[in-house]
Amino acid sequence: MTKMDLIERISKNFDLTKKEAEIAVNTVFEAISEALDKGEKVELRGFGVFKVREKRARIGRNPRTGEKVEVPPKRVPYFKAGKELKEAVNRNQ
Questions:
Q1: Considering the chain, what percentage of its residues have pLDDT values greater than 90?
Q2: CATH code of 91's domain
């Protein structure tokens, strides 16, 4: 499913124009992104939790040359699926 598929489904289910549905989807994504940027976790009950993980600095290796490269610390988004989502995915096996 793509973002556009999600917009179309919301548009049909809630009798909205595609533009209104796109605004709704973008608002949700922006809210999640802003919360993660602030270091907050976003918990959607029954779906899962979005968090930010801190990766420490490390020494990596350039695969082409084998040369050692310093990799700076960074923050990466992480998603952990909730129990209901896991059950829904495995229900139709």
A1: 97
A2: 4.10.520.10
Q: Which domain holds residue 51?
A: 41-93
Q: Rounded to an integer, what distance in angstroms lies between the CA atom of residue 79 and that of residue 46? A: 13
Does the pTM of the predicted model rise above 0.70?
yes
C-alpha span between 47 and 44 (Å, rounded): 5
User: In whole angstroms, what is the distance from residue 93 CA to residue 47 CA?
Assistant: 19
Residue corresponding to tokens 């909205």: 16
Using 50, 70 and 90 to split pLDDT, how confident is the model at 91? confident
pLDDT number for residue 69: 96
Identify whether residues 8 and 33 lie together within a single domain.
yes
Same domain, 74 and 54: yes
